Amino acid sequence: MWSTPYTRPDKPCTPARVGGLGAKKGIGSAALPLKIFYTDIFPIPLPEKHAFPGDKYRLLRSRITSDLGKHPVDMQVPAPAAENAILRTHDAAYVRRLFSGELTEKEIRRVGLPWSPEMVKRTRYSVGGTIAACCAALSDGVAANLGGGTHHAFHDHGQGFCWLNDAVIAARAMQDNDLAARILIVDCDVHQGNGTAVLARHDPTLFTFSIHGKNNFPYRKEKSDLDIELPNGTGDDAYLDALAKGLAASTRRFKADLAIYLAGADPYRKDRFGRLALSKAGLARRDRLVLHHLQRAGISTAVTLAGGYAPDVQDIVDIHYQTIETVLALYPLFKRR
Questions:
Q1: Residue 54 has what pLDDT?
Q2: Does 241 map to a domain?
Q3: Residue 309 lies in a domain
Q4: β-strand partners of 229
């Protein structure tokens, strides 16, 4: 396992990058390890006992390093998202004020995270991780970002722990570089991807599927291309049945070159903000269902981790870790497409 920058911030997926499109070993080569991008080396300054579980990223990477170190896994630090890539999705005035620390107190409260230069840096690297995971997925079949899933960010404001919308930024980066034309966003965070829904609205090249709690934040839902709303207390079997139907409908209605999968840990039954009742085993079945479906459909897939707010951070780490285990287990199938 090693760490090396994967993309230039101004030019994603360049052939000179390790494992990038056009690399010497070729697309889908069996010699290529699974690429996993991480950004926890850039700290998030948070007050003590803040609701956002910032430690989960460091703990997750440590567990992957210790438990999966003998497997073909390549841990990489991505390049930060370039400003021009961000501006394909977000308002220029908002981005300028976000970068320079000129947001109002109301705007910062709406996100729920304290602003700092370190937070901006981490945000740009996290978005860069999703861009890099998309690049690697298009080369290798599947890849993962140990972060991302910031689906509550809108064109001109952030919300719900999300400053920038990494999935839409990454999708448009792929399109702008002629790497993928049609992108499917499969959002299995327990909260609706409201920012994603609005940003992708009226764009026939993006398809948004969100399966989430009906009574959860955001309390004013937006309209995705496909929404499945679940009642409080929904358990494993009912959730997985609904998800299977949603996946089938999504890939029937939309032929994608690339999928971005938000594998939230917050449908877990002990999550503080979740209201659903999935077990850890049920969430592992969810990951297998999504990834198997996308693999069989021949769709390259970038995995992001999205939310997770169980009181015990180790529960969150367990859920995210089994997502990465599932990606690794299915990686050979994606490579043989």
A1: 86
A2: yes
A3: yes
A4: 212
